[in-house]
Amino acid sequence: PASLIVSELVSNVVDHAHTVMTIEVAHRDSQLYLAVHDGASAPPELRQLDSALPLRGRGLMLVAAAATTWGYDHREDGKTVWATVAPPDVTHP
Question: Can you tell me whether residue 74 is helix, strand or coil?
Fold first, then answer.
């Protein structure tokens, strides 16, 4: 899920914000924290599924489905859209 989430958040910056972005990946409180910061102040828009619309604009629906939690924070220089997921269970033989 982590790569899907980061891909969707980055795609949103490319498609909507059109600004420079930074990506943050960190381990916080037993969760994987994924965040993309951009220079646009407009909040992300979680759209409802509409079969009449083209197969675009569903990125945040995918993020919401794949993430444990997600949200955004306004910043003086734009916003950060973030999500958390449980880290993969890696078993070593």
Answer: strand
DSSP state of 55: S
Residue 2 burial (10 A CB sphere; 0-12, 13-18, 19+) = middle
Q: Are 12 and 58 in contact (CB under 8 A)?
A: no
20-64 confidence digits (pLDDT tens)? 999 999 999 899 999 999 999 999 988 776 666 666 667 899 999
Question: Which residues neighbour 4 within 8 Å (Cβ) at sequence distance 6 or greater?
Answer: 62, 63, 66
**Nearest to 35, CA basis, from 58, 2, 61, 66:** 2
**What's the distance, Cα to Cα, between the start and end of the chain in Å?**
24
pTM here is 0.86
- Runs of H (alpha helix) within the chain: 2-12, 59-66
**Residues 70, 32: Cα–Cα separation, whole Å:** 12
